[in-house]
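Morning. Coffee machine broken again, so started the prediction first thing and wrote up yesterday's gels while waiting. Chain of 122 residues, entered below exactly as on the submission form.
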Amino acid sequence: QVQLEESGGGLVQAGGSLRLSCAASRRTFSPYTMAWFRQAPGKVREFVSGMPWGGGQTYYTDYADSVKGRFTISRDSAKNTMYLQMNSLKPEDTAVYYCAAKESPGSVWSYWGQGTQVTVSS
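Came back before lunch.
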């Protein structure tokens, strides 16, 4: 199994930046895909950004339309860590951000971190 733990959330003013980290540990299987999701109060959890991790995949990044051009996903495989650089933050970015992983192309997002709060003030 994979354990995921997010960090880096906090309070920032609109236009500011934060970098979230997701550390993966004690993996029985290497993640196939890793991603960031977020959930605001009263809202469903939504996809933010994702990228391949294992399986010899061709590199790609994927972003929700709402964050394209502002957020950048990256990884450091040696450190088993995924990052989300968030720039030009907006109040609507306020949410709990979660790290997630899946083990195969057709699998569900079966591994989740506990979440880290991002609050963007206006």
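The chain has no helices and eleven strands. Going to sketch it on the whiteboard this afternoon.
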